[in-house]
Amino acid sequence: MEALGGKNKKEDSLTAYEGKWLIVVLTLITMMAFAANSLFTRMAFQTTEIDAASFTAIRIISGALTLVSIAQIKGESPKFSRINWFSAFLLFIYAAAFSFAYRNISTGAGALVLFAAAQLLMISYGIYKGERASFLGMLLALGGLVFFLAPGASAPPLGAAALMALAGFAWGGFSLLGKKGDSPISGTASSFLLAIPFSIGLLLIPNEAVRVDRAGIIYALLSGTLASGVGYAIWYWVRIRMAAITAGAVQLSVPVLSAIFGALLLEERITSRGAISALVVLAGIALVTLTTKRR
């Protein structure tokens, strides 16, 4: 009996160990998927003829189909309410601004501005709701972002950076609304479905010629199905199995991975100013994440 009990404990310990490694591996895959979103979008506008509105529409439609399929496999169905419409509008603003910004900003720089804007909005909302966090961390994050965007030879174009900041604020608002839902998968699927009319409407606005090619469509589909749909689904599974602080901290890797992907696959240059700014911004956000206390 003692030997049998010892064996069961050993098996339980092994199962827990394997479970932790599964979470680590899936977290890494998810962060790479988030970074790949930036890469696919940037590659589309650097190497194909597709326009930003078409890319946005294809990404949202393919993401909606993917998430609805995943929700149905789980036995869930999309729900439509007033808050879902608002979430859909924020999702559309994020996706559209994201696409238009990446026509003129590098992969890593875009991800840094996006991530910083989203996190700063969510942190500010937390402080408004009574949470307490490091004031020094906020100053570091804001200071690093200002230094990165300040005029200079290596600064990203201001218009593209402003669009990416808008995308980040919209994504932060979308994420905050998503916390109020019961099922992240069905809620996100609903938002993607309701964002389709907005994306089609964008195609009808005479802002630029609608252009698509095979490679551009493929990048948009990869962004919508794998990097968005599947990536979000895996992240929600992982997210509920880790502490909130850990979930916030691991996302610090996304701008870094995006910059590495851009350097390796698009030969984008990582400047010393950009690297220093990124380290300061990410250090500030990490400090805020690790010191946040609820009221």
TrEMBL record:
One of its GO terms (cellular component) is membrane. Pfam families: EamA. Coiled coil: none annotated. Keywords: Membrane, Transmembrane, Transmembrane helix. The chain crosses the membrane at residues 21-40, 52-71, 83-102, 108-128, 135-153, 159-178, 185-205, 217-238, 245-266, 272-290. It is found in: Membrane. Residues 161-289 form the EamA domain. It comes from the Bacteria. It is a multi-pass membrane protein. PANTHER family: AMINO-ACID METABOLITE EFFLUX PUMP-RELATED, INNER MEMBRANE TRANSPORTER. This is Threonine/homoserine efflux transporter RhtA. It comes from Pseudomonas abietaniphila. The lineage of its organism: Bacteria, Pseudomonadati, Pseudomonadota, Gammaproteobacteria, Pseudomonadales.
